[in-house]
Amino acid sequence: MQDSHFDVVIVGGGMVGAALACGLAQQQFRVAVIERAEPAIFDASSEPDVRISAIGASSVALLQQLDVWSRVQAMRCAPYRQLETWEWQNAHVKFDASSLGLPELGFMVENSVLQRALWEKMHEEGITLICPASLQGLQPHRAGWHVQLDNGQTLDARLVVGADGANSRVRQLAGIGVRGWNYAQSCMLISVECEQDAGDSTWQQFTPQGPRAFLPLFDRRASLVWYDAPARIRQLQSLPLQQLEKEIYAHFPARVGRIRVKTAASFPLVRRHATRYVMPGLALVGDAAHTINPLAGQGVNLGYRDVDALITTLVEARNQAELWSSDAVLQRYHRQRYKDNLLMQGGMDLFYFTFSNKLPPLRFARNLALIAAENAGALKRKVLRYALGL
Fold it and tell me: Whose CA, among 125, 136, 291, 371, lies 20 to 30 Å from 262?
């Protein structure tokens, strides 16, 4: 009979939860992961996942420590070395890897590829994977929790971690509140095939309706990102692919080149921040703790910073013979990550509200700010290093 007693039970085996599981298993914690569905086996001939993450340098370093990054590279990923943003043509800001002495700023990785690589590592680490299953209930029990699943199983855990996304069941059952709002925009992800090689530069143009972005993938494949009013995004989503191509040519900058649309998906933009990340024997990571405007692609990178901080906190406490699942220990993780995530959320909101405002004086001011940022030298490099987690 399968053992039901664990040091850590992680609810959610996505990109963040699976990374946390691998990291804790490497530190000799007994880990179980609960997930609804295992990611599909990678097929090199498959169409790219429409969901793409921009993985920064610090996230790559974490995945290397977990011995997962080489698996990602063996599947599919694409380096990007330049990042460019503008509204007016004469007000460009360009970030370049060479300015920091780096070989690349980061990598574009399909979410399904990253999750599959992590699952293969979890299998190799001997982590208990309970799948398909969903969390049904949580009951405090001695110095931990009873974890009840929809398949009738009950697990005992010293620490339960919610890595189960923006609508976290763990967060709800624990009674942890959230603050936030819905933005007045939705986002459309469009997987395309380019006439030319996609290159290694990602760019974003601000428009009064919302940004238009280009994310290079492997070979001639790329992902386009279209932000607009929710009604407009719904209308675009309903179009035949050939008609959607015409809309792209009409509303994206000409540098997008000739493309063929392969598939598209959309989602609303929502900001959520848990009122706290921890309570005795329980912690939240990734989207369960915070969601952010995806303007700069920082979502999964913030999740990986959570993972790194939580692993470090637990290991240091255990090495000091402390009760590592206690509220006092977990509060260290909360204090470390809450402020950083709030700062990043605020920064993205400042961008969002500044560039979605159509007042002429503000348009003039923000483009002057872009020009100033392009010529900021050391300050510009410092901002880039922070965004990359360096």
Answer: 291
Phi then psi for 283, rounded to 5 degrees?
Answer: -145, 155
Q: Within 10 A of 146 (CB to CB), how many other CB atoms are there? A: 16
Residue 281, amino acid: G
| pLDDT beneath 50, residues of the chain | 1, 359, 361-367, 369-373, 376, 379-380, 386
CA distances, 109 to each of 26, 61, 304 (Å): 24, 15, 14
How deeply is 156 buried, as exposed, middle or buried, from its count of CB atoms within 10 A (0-12, 13-18, 19+)? middle
Q: With the C-alpha atoms ordered 353, 185, 389, 168, is the resulting torsion angle positive or negative?
A: positive
Q: What is the pLDDT of residue 251?
A: 96
- The pLDDT score that the predictor gives to residue 371 is 46
Is 312:288 a contact under the CB 8 Å cutoff? no
Tokens of 371: 């020009």
What DSSP character marks residue 287? G
Length of the chain: 390
Global pTM value: 0.90
pLDDT at 209: 86
